[in-house]
Specification:
Blueprint: H1 31-34, E1 64-68, H2 72-83, E2 87-92, H3 99-122, H4 139-163, E3 167-170, E4 172-175, E5 180-185, E6 188-193, E7 196-199, E8 203-205, E9 218-219, E10 233-237, H5 241-252, E11 256-261, H6 272-285, E12 288-291, E13 295-301, E14 304-309, E15 314-317, E16 319-322, E17 326-328, H7 335-338, E18 342-343, E19 346-347, E20 360-362, H8 373-387, E21 402-404, E22 409-414, H9 417-423, E23 427-433, H10 438-442, E24 449-455, E25 461-468, H11 471-484, H12 488-492, H13 503-510, E26 513-516
Parallel strand pairs: 1-2, 1-7, 2-3, 7-20, 9-16, 10-11, 10-16, 11-12
Antiparallel strand pairs: 4-5, 5-6, 8-17, 13-14, 14-15, 18-19, 21-22, 22-25, 23-24, 23-26, 24-25
Helix pairs in contact: 2-8, 3-4, 3-5
Length: 521
Amino acid sequence: MAEAPGRRRGGRSHRGGEADGSGIREPALSHRVGRSLRGHGGRGLVGPARRVRPLPSRGVSVPRFLVIGGGPAGVAAASVAAAGGAAVTLVEAEVLGGASQLRECIPSKALAASISGLAGIRARGHLGSADPGPLRPDPARLAERRLSIAALLSETERGRLEALGVDIRAGRARFTGARTAAVASAGGEDTLEFDCALIATGSVPRVPPWVAPDGERILTSRQVYRLTQAPEEVVVVGAGATGVEFAHLLSSLGSRVVLLASRGRVLPQSDPEAAAALEEEFADRGVVVLRGARAREIRDADGRVEVVAEDGRTAGGSHALLAVGLLPATAGLGLDAAGVSLAGEAVAVDASQRTTTPHIFAAGDVTGGPMLSSVAAAEGTVAGRRALGLPAAPVEHTAAAQAVYTDPEVAWVGLQEDPAAASGRRVRVTRARFAANPRALMTARPRGFAKVISDSGDETILGGVVVGAQAAELIGILALAVRAGLRRDDLAGTLLAYPSLAETLAEAAAGPQRDGAPRAS
């Protein structure tokens, strides 16, 4: 008799489609985070497999839902399916909550928050207090803080899933057929049968073919946390979100940083004004940005590393950090055995998150869409509902807010000014600066601006940008405006708390404007 698959939550959804029920057949985080993967019996992460009550055979209408991957996509899907009555088994190979989430995203943001707090203390002189003198970050305490946050988040996810009856298993799953999977764990290998399944294995750091990270001098964005001290001098390869965040973090910890940007600026996917503001801050703190420098080699140089760009420029340091994007984690899943096809490097899915095998779904980074936790969770929710035969609208990726946790923070959502111009769409751009915002002046954080992008005809808000303190929080207002189809006057006329940073968004909606006529490329 088949064992019951367990429930979990997570996912992203791409495109939509009507539900037809075909998914169901009637019938070194550190020792604190990795410990439960070693079967010690503790809570908080993936613990040892629990004994599962066998389900009736397929003759009854209790669908067996197998979720492979315990990140945001898997957790969301498992939660939805379990709440809907499915028997859910969730298999996670590394850490409940997702390795990408808890070993990259949360640690870097926790470190950024610590550094921001220390910067606030240093600014006491501007706030009316005596100068506290030099403040030295304690690497051990910073590490303990980020690890404890990750462990708490993982434990919280475990509690939620277990309350829903999800069977959580530590191990690696691979398909052995269209309705069977093998789960390898410390105790051996088990075979599970399922009626529907979700692939939510996330992503791994992309490693170019011309380099082999050693985890000591040449590091990926996950390996960097092994360091016990800030490196003397770091060459960061890649100037997207991950690259600029690490350039900010490491320079704040005292490292000398050289940042290689393969294109003409940092954050090439963001607003040019926002990127320029961040580059100005980098220049002030001594970060060297090599624009148009695409790395082609990292070589040893007398105990140091040297990064060589395609144009011959070089940058040397004690360490090199690779931040060149993420790769969908599809290796070892046995996709061929299940009839699941890839689209390039990612699992191919349709509008309802279905793969080429209709009762197997995929969500999150593994599908190759926007690699954001919010998108993954939304897609997982869609996949979980579709697997139960329930309707679910596809996720609107363009309405997903994105943030970069530097100082200043940079955030954006929806249609941006340059893409609008390139497409020939006429937009209106209105903006305001935080320099005259009372709250920004009170907190000694007056840098930055807010920009609202709207249709030049009906003034519907299409997108926006925020650069400055709390930008990651403020962008949520514009994200809601984009999703709800609000007009500029809706935002400009909102009665906000005074004083607040959010007032600058309302001012931007009502403020000085310029028409974004189509520009020649």
